[in-house]
Amino acid sequence: MRILLVQSYLAKEDVRLYPLGLVCVASSLNNHQVCICDLNLYEDPFAQLEKQLLEYRPDVVGVSLRNIDNQDRINTVYYYNDFVRTIKRIKAVAPKVRLIVGGAGYSMFAREIMQRNGEIDFGVYLEGEPTFPELLDNLDDPAAVRGLYYRERGEVRFTGEREPPELDSLPRTQRSYADMSAYDNTIINIGVESKRGCMFDCIYCNYPFLNGNTIRRRDPKNVVDEIEDMVNEYGIRRFTFVDPIFNVPIDHANQICREIIKRNLDVSWGAYMHLRYATEQFLLTAREAGCEAFIFSPDGASDNALKSLCKRITEAELRKVYKLFRTNEKLKDAFVLFTLMLSPPGGTFRDLVKTLWFHTKAKHQLRGRGGAIMGWIRIEPKTKVHELAIGGSKHGIDLLPESAGALENTFYKNPSLRMFDAAIFHLMKMTRPSKKN
């Protein structure tokens, strides 16, 4: 069969991201002819989509919805609306194709998206590498495929969850499916995956839902083989690890770093790190292996806020790591970023002051090489903060609203800090450039 895989449009103002998820799915479709169309590469993405549909004439089209929105309360961009526009255009131009959707954004709202969008024939729930090829073999018998939403006599059905795959059992990623030269070789554009799953339970995070709470690791040598191939075959020397947390388990991260050093690979990379496992020895090993962007998400700057967020770290650990990047000569030139949440559940005025102070301090002391960014928690399904937000309400919160303006209601505001919300919102809005919705 002829398969067209489409990366949903993520708005012009966002950086172009190599479609790693679609490439992984494409790599599992060895018995089919596959083409990938990343709408974010084109000035007129929907004209390009129509052109590819007419020229390629696929039997099946798969659309990945990577994110619902940009999770930014100040400059909100609602990707879901462009996703809806995408699937409608596909069915208008090629009404007979089988339309399959998937991706992290889709999986968070799988049933709702199926019910609202009759153009969709099938929905791949959670990880697509095992489900998508099996579906292609059972397009007329979808009930036989686990991890799938489909329609039967006008009703949306779900076949049930399937066991997530072990990563080293999946086909090797064939990066030639997407033109790597089309993506700027900055650290954040190209992704490499070394593990899936997260064992932590931060109250706002959906990673345990999307990838499970058991960490599934790739063999470190296989990970570095992929990196070495990118260097030798495509000249790609800058990338980011897309793992939820790179340095957990710490021994796995150390093995990858040491393997990069052993092979003498001249690469630069970034990753999300956990503060508790960011020992000085590990940070120096990562730095030697080419890490130049360390991103931490303490999300609070006080013990009370950290406890309320279920971060499993302390204020002392935050200060310790921050000090290392200020004083260690081998780390003083690295980029380091800390994310902070305003108005988290359980937060007090004192916590708010500490958050603002840490942000101000990091902004000035780390000027030119990172700092701290602040935002609000975007409430998402399958998270503890969603349960807190709706409480005993019968109506709940529409987390997939019809318009971008209604996304304002999906950001958590601590009731005890509500009196400060308008002032903080105005202050942040005044200091940031605006974007179009």
- Oligomer state equals single chain
Examine the secondary-structure arrangement and name the CATH architecture of the largest domain.
Alpha-Beta Horseshoe
Q: What does the largest sheet look like?
A: 7 strands, mixed
Widest β-sheet, arrangement of strands: 2-1-3-4-5-6-7
Find the CATH topology of the largest domain.
Answer: pyruvate-formate lyase- activating enzyme
CATH class of the largest domain: Alpha Beta
What structural class should be given to the helix and strand makeup? alpha/beta
Please trace the helix and strand order, writing H or E for each element: EHEHEHEHHEHEEEEHEHEHEHEHHEHEHH
What's the average pLDDT?
95
Helix percentage range: 25-40%
CATH superfamily of the largest domain: tm_1862 like domain
Topology record:
Blueprint: E1 2-7, H1 20-27, E2 33-38, H2 45-56, E3 60-64, H3 79-93, E4 98-102, H4 104-108, H5 110-116, E5 122-124, H6 128-136, E6 148-152, E7 155-158, E8 191-192, E9 195-196, H7 207-211, E10 216-217, H8 220-234, E11 238-241, H9 250-262, E12 268-273, H10 280-288, E13 291-299, H11 303-308, H12 315-327, E14 335-341, H13 349-365, E15 370-375, H14 384-390, H15 418-430
Parallel strand pairs: 1-2, 1-3, 3-4, 4-5, 8-11, 11-12, 12-13, 13-14, 14-15
Antiparallel strand pairs: 5-6, 6-7, 9-10
Question: Could you list some keywords that capture this structure?
Answer:
alpha/beta; Rossmann fold; pyruvate-formate lyase- activating enzyme; 2 domains; seven-stranded mixed sheet; 15 helices; 15 strands; 35% helix; globular
